[in-house]
Amino acid sequence: MSAGVVVAGERLGHIPPVETNPLLDEARDRLRRTFGHADFRGLQGEVIGEILAGRNAMAVLPTGGGKSLCYQIPALIRPGLGLVVSPLIALMADQVAALTQSGVAAARLDSAIEPSERRETWARIEAGELDILYLSPEGLMQPAMLQRLSQLDLALVAIDEAHCVSQWGHDFRPEYRMLGQLASLFPRTPRLAVTATADARTREDIRAELRLTDAREFVDSFARPELILAAERKVGKSDKRVIELVTQRPGRAGVVYTGSRDGADALAASLRDAGAHALAYHAGLDAGVRKTRLMEFLAADDAVMVATIAFGMGIDKADVRFVIHADPPASIEAYWQEIGRAGRDGAPAEGITLYGPADLNWALRRIGGREVADEVRQVQTRKARQLHAMLEGMGCRAAAVRRYFGETDVEPCGQCDLCLAPPVAVDVSEAARKALAAVHRLGGRYGRGRVVDHLLGKTKEPSEFEAGLSTFGVGKEFSPAGWRDLIDQLLFEGLVREDPNDGRPLLGLGDAEAVRAVYRGERGVQLRRAPEAHDPTTRSGRPRRRRGGEPLGVPETDMSLFDVLRAWRREEAARQGVPPYVIFHDRTLAEIARVRPATPAALTSVGGVGQAKLDRYGAAVLALVAA
Ligand code: ADP
Ligand code: ZN
Predict the structure, then answer these.
(1) What angle do CA 308, 314, 316 make, to 5 degrees?
(2) Ligand 2 centroid to residue 249 C-alpha, Å
(3) pLDDT value at position 546?
(4) Same domain, yes or no: 161 and 267
(5) Is residue 548 situated within a structural domain?
(6) Helix (H) or strand (E) holding 85
(7) Same structural domain for residues 472 and 373?
(8) Residue 41 in contact with ligand 1 by CB distance below 6 A
């Protein structure tokens, strides 16, 4: 990494260590009193120290890593108004609601705000009563707005989701490019860019476009120990498997990502039929419907949002317990961001991805058909391949992702599917030669099912030509599922190719050089097969994974109190018209259920209970615990 980059675990000589930096005493006090957290997490302390010293900074912290406190706390401590630029109204609304709950004077000015509220907010700003103001990039850059802000003392300008400035990222927003002007408009105000996208190229873009060349860069570890990862190759249509996965997780909030709008609608309907509280969300719905569904999702603690990637950035629901990809994402960055929407409260959550060779093929074809510069196409192609290599990999998934983001010395997570059941590689080169020969002899005229039947000698009424081929019936050693797995593997390795043929794909030989190498025995083909017994009760034949206990770590004996607290929170949230988790996170309620605090002092020692929340809810919670 270049000079000026602070990576988790290492320190630059001229920054006092967080423990002894006097600037941070007040920040730590704020963290405890206002936000109820015992200490800084990751690089938060370092980033806050930098802004408090009046310098620009750039923070790359994983989703859920606590990026918002990096600007909220300095905005509270430094004199003047803290500006926060954010790309989405939903995100701003959520943060303002959460800050207000914690007793912080925060507001937003965006296109959705009524003129009367606008005037009231400006009155608070001009009276010096407001600490934090959220703005959209286009709202901030309006000349009248800049003019008005230039009359004020500004504590800082924070640019949230700063990767939106980069065309290499997946959330490019042209209006973010205007934010570079802030460097000359507010030269004495420290600026902070925050993002969860670690890709080095995106980081460079952020620096250049936002004119943050002097800013120290803080890159935190991408570890998300609360996320339990798994991936499965699709077996047939993924909807049935998704319904199974969701119904195995009743009463939990989740997100299911699908590749198409129709897919989202259909899957949400099937999930509702299966008894889940499922909602569909995609760009084909009108804004009003999207908004009501988003509100319903945020307000509920058991809703499952079935969505395309239109449902994305800025969805800050803290208690999402699982993210399921019914179709795989576009890159490892997108994977980590989407999966990362689970477990933001720090409590255990799951990320499960369904994928298959057809998805990779489809992604590559789509990239190939895009009207973009060659260089962009190459980057996107590489990213799609890297994602599938990770999904298909043999080693720890979390470790693979972190290495991709540039971390070194990464330990296996010990809890992903591959750590729990390390796959063993089985050499299937001989069978691969049979399959390749069959595909070759059949001349690219048939799909996978027919090729498998041919290998097994089970083709119904084969032509004389087909029955006479040397490959007919040579593959009786595997079951049909075994052959399909093997052909998937050949597709992943580019040894065979699928011609889409209007939805009835035909198999043909892939890269000729590679195929020859397999024929000559210079290249082996291995299949990943977990060393587990075949389970006849599952469709895939793989054993069901069983995880013991309640994922939030609430012992059985405390579950009824936990449920009582959740019910109270639901009512309180409905009364105030805010999402439940801005009152208390699941994790906070779980800890309360476990430690059963009897006094206000004991209650504040629970993570997530600050002074404002103690004043507001302390009596009610203590009464429930005592009852
Ligand atoms: P993101 O980095 O994704 O924007 P947030 O700022 O929304 O993350 O924070 C994610 C969650 O972590 C929030 O629920 C927040 O209350 C919690 N959090 C942030 N900082 C700390 C901390 N120092 N200790 C404990 N929890 C924290
Ligand atoms: Zn692992």
Answers:
(1) 105
(2) 21
(3) 38
(4) no
(5) no
(6) strand 81-85
(7) no
(8) yes
Nearest CA to ligand 1 atom 9: 66
286: containing domain = 227-420
144 and 260 part of one domain: no
Distance 318 CA to ligand 1 centre (A): 9
* CA distances in angstroms from 337 to 155, 302, 331, 334, listed in the order given: 29, 21, 10, 5
Q: Which ligand is nearest to the CA of 37?
A: 1
Of 368, 397, 420, the last residue of a domain is: 420
Q: What is the pLDDT of residues 449-478, one digit of tens each?
A: 899 999 999 898 899 999 999 999 998 888
| Atom 5 of ligand 1, residue of closest alpha carbon | 66
318 pocket-lining for ligand 1 (C-beta < 6 Å): yes
| Rounded Cα distance, 285 and 426, in Å | 47
Q: Closest ligand 1 atom, CA of 67?
A: 2
Cβ 73 under 6 angstroms from ligand 1: no
**What is the CATH classification number for the domain harbouring 365?**
3.40.50.300
Atom 4 (ligand 1) nearest CA: 67
pLDDT at residue 543, rounded to an integer: 38
Do 203 and 254 fall within a single domain?
Answer: no
SS (H, E, C) 485-523: HHHHHHHHCCCEEEECHHHCCEEEECCHHHHHHHHCCCC
CA of 43 to the centre of ligand 1 (A): 12
| CB distance 334 to 389 below 8 Å | no
CA distance 209 to 203: 10
Q: What separation in Å is there between the alpha carbon of 223 and the centre of ligand 2?
A: 11
Task: Say how many Å lie between the CA of residue 63 and the centre of ligand 1.
Answer: 9
pLDDT, residue 542, reads 40
Spatial distance between the Cα atoms of 479 and 335, rounded to a whole number of angstroms: 33
CATH number for 567: 1.10.150.80
Pocket perturbation via mutation, ligand 1, pick of 43, 69, 91, 338 by most ligand atoms within 8 A of CB: 69
DSSP bridge partners of 508: 497
**Residue matched to tokens 């449920």:** 563
Residue 254 has which token pair? 């989740």
Q: Which helix (H) or strand (E) holds 526?
A: strand 526-529
**What is the model's pLDDT at position 3?**
39
DSSP string, 418-455: HHHS--EEEE-HHHHHHHHHHHHHTTT-S-HHHHHHHH
SS3 category, 351: strand
Residue with CA at minimum distance from ligand 1 atom 10 = 64
What is the whole-number distance in angstroms between the Cα of residue 65 and the centre of ligand 1? 6
Q: CA–CA separation, 330 vs 363, rounded Å?
A: 7
Do 247 and 267 reside in the same domain of the chain? yes
Please tell me the predicted confidence (pLDDT) of residue 511: 84
Structure confidence by residue, pLDDT tens digits, 552-581: 667 777 888 988 999 999 899 888 888 888
Specify the DSSP element, H or E, that contains 527. strand 526-529
Distance in Å, CA 336 to ligand 2 centroid: 14
Number of domains observed in the structure of the chain: 4
> Mean pLDDT, to the nearest integer, of 539-554?
47
Torsion over CA: 354, 356, 360, 363 (sign): negative
Tokens 């042209």 sit on residue: 174
Residues 480 and 604 reside in one and the same domain: no
Q: Is 380 touching ligand 1 by the criterion CB < 6 Å? A: no
HSE, side-chain direction, 13 A CA sphere, residue 559: 8
Let me know whether 268 and 323 are in one domain.
yes
